[in-house]
Design brief:
Strand content: over 45%
Number of domains: 1
Radius of gyration: 12 Å
CATH topology: Lipocalin
CATH architecture: Beta Barrel
Structural class: mainly beta
Strand order of the largest sheet: 1-2-3-4-5-6-7-8
Shape: globular
Helix content: under 10%
């Protein structure tokens, strides 16, 4: 998956107002296997396994200043859209969609 920021446009469990509450929601996968995401009050650093058109990741960060962590996956469609899932350890899991910024 190419290193690039992607604009998160939808997350199943949260509405658009929450996604962009602090700043525009995004996810980034870098070629060095790291990355980050932000949506609402959630911020996470990614540790990724990257494939040609997909990624699996674990993440650690904060939700309203409380420590959180989890895992997820993402698949890159031919049109550049990303479909995936973000899971919180012992908590919510939700699908998401992201597009080129």
């Amino acid at each position: 998956m190419r290193a690039q920021y992607r604009r998160i446009t939808a997350i199943e469990l949260w509405d658009k107002d929450y996604l962009d509450m602090v700043e525009p929601a995004y996810i980034q996968f870098r070629r060095d296997g790291l990355g980050e995401f932000k949506f609402g009050c959630v911020v996470g650093g990614l540790d990724c396994t990257l494939y040609a058109d997909a990624a699996e990741f674990t993440w650690e960060g904060s939700d309203e200043m409380d420590p959180v962590s989890g895992d997820g996956w993402a698949e890159l469609d031919e049109d550049g859209t990303i479909n995936g899932e973000i899971s919180f350890h012992l908590g919510d899991e939700s699908t998401f969609k992201a597009r080129r910024w």
